[in-house]
Amino acid sequence: MAKPAQGAKYRGSIHDFPGFDPNQDAEALYTAMKGFGSDKEAILDIITSRSNRQRQEICQSYKSLYGKDLIADLKYELTGKFERLIVGLMRPPAYCDAKEIKDAISGIGTDEKCLIEILASRTNEQMHQLVAAYKDAYERDLEADIIGDTSGHFQKMLVVLLQGTREEDDVVSEDLVQQDVQDLYEAGELKWGTDEAQFIYILGNRSKQHLRLVFDEYLKTTGKPIEASIRGELSGDFEKLMLAVVKCIRSTPEYFAERLFKAMKGLGTRDNTLIRIMVSRSELDMLDIREIFRTKYEKSLYSMIKNDTSGEYKKSLLKLCGGDDDAAGQFFPEAAQVAYQMWELSAVARVELKGTVRPANDFNPDADAKALRKAMKGLGTDEDTIIDIITHRSNAQRQQIRQTFKSHFGRDLMSDLKSEISGDLARLILGLMMPPAHYDAKQLKKAMEGAGTDEKALIEILATRTNAEIRAINEAYKEDYHKSLEDALSSDTSGHFRRILISLATGNREEGGENLDQAREDAQILAPTGALQEIADTPSGDKTSLETRFMTILCTRSYPHLRRVFQEFIKMTNYDVEHTIKKEMSGDVRDAFVAIVQSVKNKPLFFADKLYKSMKGAGTDEKTLTRIMVSRSEIDLLNIRREFIEKYDKSLHQAIEGDTSGDFLKALLALCGGED
């Protein structure tokens, strides 16, 4: 069985049995099958309570102790569905899949549904193990047997899936996503007939994360889900296979929840399907399947199995199911699922972050320095040249220009720019000329100097920067202002808000992945049962304790871990954590926590919202607009643009064009990088 990746959550219902003794289990099974009749209760109790790895050890011990094959003895002693289930559990997963496929293509006719279910849902590693197991068990080539038993595009797609070569990189290229959307559209909707080869190539080879984004973009581009196009363009078993692939790409547990429901609904039970899924998913994602089943069909998988089966067969299936989600505390509420489904996919997706400003090709710092000097020399200033050069060079290239300018002319480029340009354009151009950490340090300094404090600027910067960026800001602040950032924050803020900012300013956020057990503990700390309601209802409620609990987790845990905490929080409270913060807190503390949560969920969307608000209504918040356009131009401004147009139905380019003017407008549009 494929092990979960290091740090990945385990979502199976069957675990290693504690205190496991393979010899003792082998003896108990031998005793259960010795003499007249067999003790089926003992057999099912042992086999459904051990992991597959432990069952293999029992098989070996049984053969060593008694010189007999355990699976052969079980086949002899048991019958019917119960025998099929128990024997399936005794085989290694790859050999179990191999047996299912062998049965599906043996004899008269083919069980296409079985082929589709297995080959559409298995990972690359599982597919490689399946091919090897088939060869070992039957001394035959699986690909050759499938080719001999199927035909047409259905056969071609099965062969592609059988290779186990689906891309596994979870960093997605947005350019390739757009290309694949166009290729699929042209292969189906825009073509007389259908280019099935394009569907096979893209759906059979691209990574799951990539395809999820392709499906999202396909819907936006064509106005219909990819499933509708498949139904309209393809047919027969090929259509069913491609729909199964799409379902598994979207959510493998949901695909199996649907298969289980269909296996038991109506008259009669499709026991082969029921057995195959319960056996194959018991150590992979049965808990996820249960949650989705309960949400989608408003009944638990446990209760449906209980009502649809009987005898030892039923008892064994219920053991594999692992629990009844109709029981209090286990039900995963539909409202909770809806609450985070809106952001979970985009938040978890490691979409490739792209800035709009990239290093200029054929960069020549000498030529740029001379052009800038010429633009500022004599009467008047050539702002267009200044804008064109500075907005189309990376920050590293701008630093080279600064050094070259000083070497050639003995003058400081920043000082010359300050004397030649003014207002919003000056703030933007000078900001671009500063190294990022020094720019952020200056923005923090400005937020704290003079009368009053710009808390929003403090929050925006400290809640969104990475550890490396925060540490660089600390060094830049110390270098430029001869005072530590922590001291500055301490003297200019107070209370819990100060503690939050200082915690963020340490740059010590954890950087690992999620830990499910820890996430549940953290969610419990944030939302102990009934505590939030009690705090809300009781005037003397311990608000200080609530804020401290949120700070210790939101300011220190890694982003992937916090996403899991937010989901566990929803399961416990049926509320999104952001909703709870807004309800239970106020002022700068509330704003800081909300900014952290929004940044964790989807940082480009957080900045898109800030940009929209900076240009909404009467007047423009040029400081916020400038700060974000400067600081994100080489990091994720392209992603921000996409979030902006998706949420507000107009492009960032259009918003800037309608809200600014003159040279400031030209410079902003150059940074924006294009019209969406």
From TrEMBL:
<keyword id="KW-0677">Repeat</keyword>
<dbReference type="GO" id="GO:0005509">
    <property type="term" value="F:calcium ion binding"/>
</dbReference>
<keyword id="KW-0963">Cytoplasm</keyword>
<dbReference type="GO" id="GO:0051560">
    <property type="term" value="P:mitochondrial calcium ion homeostasis"/>
</dbReference>
<protein>
    <recommendedName>
        <fullName>Annexin</fullName>
    </recommendedName>
</protein>
<dbReference type="GO" id="GO:0001786">
    <property type="term" value="F:phosphatidylserine binding"/>
</dbReference>
<dbReference type="GO" id="GO:0051283">
    <property type="term" value="P:negative regulation of sequestering of calcium ion"/>
</dbReference>
<comment type="function">
    <text>May associate with CD21. May regulate the release of Ca(2+) from intracellular stores.</text>
</comment>
<dbReference type="GO" id="GO:0005739">
    <property type="term" value="C:mitochondrion"/>
</dbReference>
<keyword id="KW-0106">Calcium</keyword>
<comment type="similarity">
    <text>Belongs to the annexin family.</text>
</comment>
<dbReference type="GO" id="GO:0097190">
    <property type="term" value="P:apoptotic signaling pathway"/>
</dbReference>
<keyword id="KW-0111">Calcium/phospholipid-binding</keyword>
<dbReference type="InterPro" id="IPR037104">
    <property type="entry name" value="Annexin_sf"/>
</dbReference>
<dbReference type="InterPro" id="IPR002393">
    <property type="entry name" value="ANX6"/>
</dbReference>
<dbReference type="InterPro" id="IPR018252">
    <property type="entry name" value="Annexin_repeat_CS"/>
</dbReference>
<dbReference type="GO" id="GO:0005634">
    <property type="term" value="C:nucleus"/>
</dbReference>
<keyword id="KW-0597">Phosphoprotein</keyword>
<dbReference type="GO" id="GO:0042470">
    <property type="term" value="C:melanosome"/>
</dbReference>
<keyword id="KW-0007">Acetylation</keyword>
<dbReference type="GO" id="GO:0006816">
    <property type="term" value="P:calcium ion transport"/>
</dbReference>
<dbReference type="GO" id="GO:0012506">
    <property type="term" value="C:vesicle membrane"/>
</dbReference>
<dbReference type="Pfam" id="PF00191">
    <property type="entry name" value="Annexin"/>
</dbReference>
<dbReference type="GO" id="GO:0005544">
    <property type="term" value="F:calcium-dependent phospholipid binding"/>
</dbReference>
<keyword id="KW-0041">Annexin</keyword>
<dbReference type="InterPro" id="IPR001464">
    <property type="entry name" value="Annexin"/>
</dbReference>
<dbReference type="GO" id="GO:0005886">
    <property type="term" value="C:plasma membrane"/>
</dbReference>
<dbReference type="InterPro" id="IPR018502">
    <property type="entry name" value="Annexin_repeat"/>
</dbReference>
